[in-house]
Amino acid sequence: MNTQQLSDNIAKVRLRVRESAEKCQRLPETISVLAVSKTRSADAVAAALDCGMRRFGENYLQEALEKIEQLAGRGIEWHFIGPIQSNKTRSIATHFDWAHSVDREKIARRLSEQRPDELPPLQICLQVNISGEVSKSGVLPEEVPALANAIADLPGVKLRGLMAIPAATDDIAEQHAAFKKLREVFDELNANGAGLDTLSMGMSGDMEAAIAEGATIVRIGTDIFGPRQ
Ligand SMILES: *Cc1c(COP(=O)(O)O)cnc(C)c1O
């Protein structure tokens, strides 16, 4: 993809965010676009950075670490959004700003312990399994309050909100229903004083529904960088 196409794609994504927000009387500035750069080269990330994208999401640790090193000092905010096994926590805690896919207390504890002292706490979301997700990842909705409680006081991580990857569907009503479920878990936590501000939900195919249901971060890969191989 050339730079012009990339820049057009990013403009289109921004326009969709703005229009979706306005449709439901939300402020577009309250929704941020995470550019999902898995499988893309460091050059592609640099080009998106030149188009004004600042937040990038990665799923595969090894690949991400190479890009993070190549693009060091460019002011990128790196978000880990892939499954987190115990043997990955040290690298994630060291090299990322956010992790969206925390679904176990043990992982949160390791991230907290391994977060370097000189860095601010790692910003985290709990991944919730709201609709019989394709992957087995994610804590069940009814288990979220206990998990949120268990990790609330860990010094090296800061719980910001919830994330989900509902099963892909073209059915708009189903998209809304899944995101609404996550939103309800979120509202209930906040009603009990959790103080969360982040709902990470919505991808290229369903960002409009996610924004209508309250997304504050949409994670967009294909519609920015083109189809993945
Ligand atoms: C790949 C991926 C995305 C982006 O998906 P697109 O459909 O390409 O926009 C978002 N979130 C997660 C967790 C992903 O793995």
Automatic annotation (TrEMBL):
Annotated Alanine racemase N-terminal domain residues: 30-227
Keywords on record: Pyridoxal phosphate
Cofactor: pyridoxal 5'-phosphate
A Pfam cross-reference name: Ala_racemase_N
List of residues that carry N6-(pyridoxal phosphate)lysine: K38
Superkingdom to which the source organism belongs: Bacteria
Cited InterPro entries: Ala_racemase_N, PLP-binding_barrel, PyrdxlP_homeostasis
Family: Belongs to the pyridoxal phosphate-binding protein YggS/PROSC family.
Entry function: Pyridoxal 5'-phosphate (PLP)-binding protein, which is involved in PLP homeostasis.
NCBIfam families: YggS family pyridoxal phosphate-dependent enzyme
Protein name as catalogued: Pyridoxal phosphate homeostasis protein
Lineage: Bacteria, Pseudomonadati, Pseudomonadota, Gammaproteobacteria, Cellvibrionales
